[in-house]
Amino acid sequence: MLHPRKVLKKTAAGILMLFLLFFNLGCWDRQEIDKLSLAMVAGIDYCPEKNQIVYTSLIARPGQLGGGTEGGVGQLFMGPVWVAQSTGKTIFEASRNIAVKDPRRLFESHMQAMVVGEELARRGIGELVDFIVREREHRLIHPLLVTKCTAGEVIRAEPQLENILSQEIKGLLENQQNLSAAPTMDLKDFLNALNRPGADAYAPVIEVREKNPAPDEEFIGSSERNKKFISVQGTAVFSEDKLAGYLNVPETKGLLWVRGEVNRANLIPRQSNGGQVTVYITRSISKLEPEFTENCLKMSIQVETEGDIAAANIKQDITDPKVIEELEKTLANQIKQEILMAVTKSKEFKSDFFAFGASFRRKDQKKWKEIEENWRELLPEVEIEVRVSAEIRRTGLISPPIIQE
After folding, report:
1. CA neighbor of 88 nearest in space, from 123, 135, 133, 56
2. What pLDDT band is residue 248 in, cutting at 50, 70 and 90?
3. Does position 262 have pLDDT exceeding 70, yes or no?
4. What is the dihedral of CA 238, 239, 245, 251, to 10 degrees?
5. Structural domains for the chain
6. For residues 377 and 365, what is the distance between their CA atoms, to the nearest angstrom?
7. Confidence grade of residue 163 (pLDDT, cut at 50, 70, 90)
8. Maximum alpha-carbon separation in the chain
9. Residue 58: strand pairing partners
10. What contacts 24+ positions apart, CB below 8 Å, involve 163-168?
11. Cα(260)–Cα(203) distance, integer angstroms
C-alpha cells in the first residue's frame, strides 16, 4: 500500500502535466517552405511620372532549373529564379502587391541584398529606412547598394558565374575587401551612420553593363552577346537621407583610407623614370584630430600604412634602401592625393561621410552644440591637414628586378 504522501505527489504531478498540455500547442506559428516565396534580392525604385514606388523582387524558384522564358506583365522567368515586380503608393503597399502575381507569401528573412534606384535615393530614403526597421522579417546583416540606373534593371541582369544573382552580388562585395574599390557596409552600419550626429551615410554602387566578347571569346556563342551583367565599384554618398553624389574608385579609396577600412588594396605609385611598382597594402590605420580655434575649425588626418612589393617593372635595385625610401614617399603622396580628392567631394556635396562632425562632437560637446545646426554650411570651410606615413615591409621572393641597368 502506497503512503498517502506519495499518492498525493503522484496525483499533483499528473494534474500538473495535464495543465501543461494546454500550453503545449506545437508549432502554431510554423511557416511551411512550400507555401513561401523566398526573396533573395529586393529592388526599390521611384517612378516620378506616375508618382509611385516600384518594388522588384528576385525570388528563388528551386524547381525551375532550365532556360529562361518570359512570362506575363511584370514577370520574368530566369532559370532558378523569378523576377516579380509591382507598384504602389508606398514601399509597403508595393511589396505586398506582389501577391497579385505570386500564389505564395513573400518571405524576406533570407534576403541577401537590397538595391535602391537613383531616383528614390535622390528623393530621400526616409520611408525605406522606416520600412526596413519596422518590418520584422528584415534582417540588418545584408548590404544596401545604390545604382545609377533602376533597381529593376540590376535584378534582371545575368549572373556570370553563380546560378543566382544574389550569390554574385555577395561574392563581388566580398572581393572588395581585397580591392578597396567600393565600401562594404551592411544595413546596420548604414542605419547607424544615417542616425549618427555629425555623420552621413554612404553605400557601394552597383552598375549594369553590357557584355561585349573580345575576339578570342567568339566561341561563347551569339546567345552570350549583349547580355547585361553587374559590377560593384564606387560609392554613393548621402546628405542626411538624400543621395548627394558619387565617388569614383580613387575617391572611394580616399574615403576608406580616412575611415581606416583599407585592409587590402593594390596601388601603383607613379615613378619619375616611367617604370611601375605595384604595392599590395597589407595594413592601415587612421586617426582624426579635430581642433576648435577662434577663427576656424581644423581637422588633422593621420594615416599609417604598410605594404609589400607585388610587382616591380623598374631597373633600379629595390634592395637599395634609398630606392625603397623613394617608393615609400611616392606611395604616401599618392594616398594623400586620394584623400584630398575625397575631401574635395565631401565639401562639394556638403556630405560628412568622413564623420568629421562626430569627431568634433567627441572633442567638445559644448562647442559642438554651438555649430551643430549650421554644420553643413561650415563643413566646406574646415581646414584639412593630411599626413601619411607609408612603409614597404617586404619585396617578395626575389629582391632585385629581373632586368637591371
Report:
1. 56
2. very high
3. yes
4. -70
5. 33-243 (no CATH), 256-394 (3.30.300.210)
6. 19
7. confident
8. 108
9. 41, 83
10. 163/79, 163/80, 164/40, 164/58, 164/60, 164/80, 164/81, 165/40, 165/41, 165/58, 165/81, 165/230, 166/40, 166/41, 166/58, 166/111, 166/112, 166/113, 167/112, 168/230
11. 16
- Residue 384 CA to residue 129 CA, distance in Å, equals 32
The letter for the amino acid at 383 is E
- In sequence order, which residues have a C-beta less than 8 Å from that of residue 259 and are 6 or more positions away? 183, 286, 354, 355
| C-alpha grid cell, residue 389 | 606615413
Sign of CA dihedral 131, 137, 140, 146: negative
Q: How many residues does the chain have?
A: 405
* pLDDT at residue 14, as a whole number: 77
Looking at residue 190, the DSSP 8-state letter turns out to be: H
Strands ordered across the beta sheet of 265-267? 265-267, 276-292, 297-313, 383-394
CB 237, CB 202: distance < 8 Å: yes
Q: Residue 83: which region, alpha, beta or left (left: phi > 0; alpha: psi -120 to 50)?
A: beta
Q: Which helix (H) or strand (E) holds 36?
A: strand 36-47
Residue 323's CB is within 10 A of a number of other CB atoms, namely 16
Q: Tally helices (H) and strands (E) across the chain.
A: 12, 14
Any idea which of 19-28, 173-182, 233-242, 305-314 has the lowest mean pLDDT?
19-28
C-alpha cell of residue 202:
554612404
- In what helix (H) or strand (E) does residue 56 lie, and over which residues does it extend? strand 52-60
